[in-house]
Design goal:
Blueprint lengths: L1 E6 L3 H12 L3 E7 L3 H11 L3 E3 L2 H5 L6 E4 L6 H10 L3 E5 L6 H14 L3 E4 L6 H11 L6 E10 L14 H4 L10 H18 L2 E9 L8 E2 L2 E2 L5 E8 L4 E7 L7 E9 L2 E6 L6 E6 L9 E4 L6 H11 L7 H20 L3 E2 L3
Parallel strand pairs: 1-2, 1-4, 2-3, 4-5, 5-6, 7-12
Antiparallel strand pairs: 7-13, 8-11, 8-17, 9-10, 11-12, 13-14, 14-15, 15-16
Length: 349
Amino acid sequence: MIRLAIIGAGSMAGEHAKHFGRLHGVEVVAVCDLDGDRARAFADTYGIPEAYTDLEAMLARDDIDAVSNVTTDAAHKATSLAAIASGKHILCEKPLATNAADAEAMAAAAREAGVINMVNLSYRNAPAIHQARELIAAGALGRIMHVDASYRQSWLVSHAWGRWDQDSQWLWRLSEGHGSKGVLGDVGVHILDFASFPVGDISAVNCKLKCFDKAPDNRIGDYRLDANDSALMRVEFAGGALGTLQATRWATGHHNSLSLSVHGDRGALRVDLDAAKDRLQVCLGEDVHPARWREVTAPDTPSLYRRFIAGIESGHNDQPDFARGAALQRVLDACFVSDAEDRSLALAG
Ligand SMILES: NC(=O)c1ccc[n+]([C@@H]2O[C@H](COP(=O)([O-])OP(=O)(O)OC[C@H]3O[C@@H](n4cnc5c(N)ncnc54)[C@H](O)[C@@H]3O)[C@@H](O)[C@H]2O)c1
């Protein structure tokens, strides 16, 4: 039995509690949040025996094997380093940190401690993205020339996920002072992974970020609303392809839509997670002439939660690990410099 603790008892932590709670051989034994009422309510909801506000006290328990870190982005580094120092295996939410230097320090600490470490880049749970990677690696599309990928959200417009102007879980995401890197850090990291996991590393970026006015004086209470909410990236992949990647919170008409198109000199593929997580469209071989698309169903993929537990059991660290989280963070950092200095940046290979 693997005994797991959750750090952070907010909205996403509920997903972790549900997924780990369903896994055979895993017991969620504790939760910690700075907010004691929230931690206790969370423990009651998910039947977790112990709730803490003192992280060190929870981590001092040697009957806890692993932690799931679901704190706010700015808290990932300190809380993860504490968990690693106490020898716990760790699944940390994305983005791994708020800058590449911190993410690299976390990856180095996990490597040196020899703990299993993974980042919850949750769209890796979609079987279609694994099938896309396999088709590209097998050469089915030929030489990849052109990529476009979008992550569209609309919680600044739609009330489907709650009120962004009233709820702390949205307000911290809008405020650099609360550790947010805006839409780029929040879901731009997902679309970077969604494109580069199948296509390959990104070697150069040119990025434009925008923060739109959305409240009087762009402030609500303690929250200064200064983090970007739309991001456009022009990228070059190490394999030579060009791509456009975008992320926005202003995609009226979409709740949470990810899509990817990849075009090679012998074929193309499209993934649209709104349509299906386990299916993709392909246009290959002779079909490229009439531009005829066919649907392919991808085999099932174990969830990241399951693969994290399997890694603890086997001692084999699956992907995406902290080193991958740090590599993505280097691209994000380059995007911020590119936007601030209005120029393209090459990334070290
Ligand atoms: N993988 C995904 O698809 C996905 C989806 C949503 C959120 N997330 C990530 O999950 C994390 C949490 O997001 P959320 O929407 O649940 O936010 P949230 O604001 O609802 O919850 C965060 C919780 O962390 C707690 N916290 C902050 N610092 C802490 C500390 N030092 N020790 C203990 N608790 C601490 C807060 O009190 C809060 O209860 C973020 O990093 C976010 O980017 C990932």
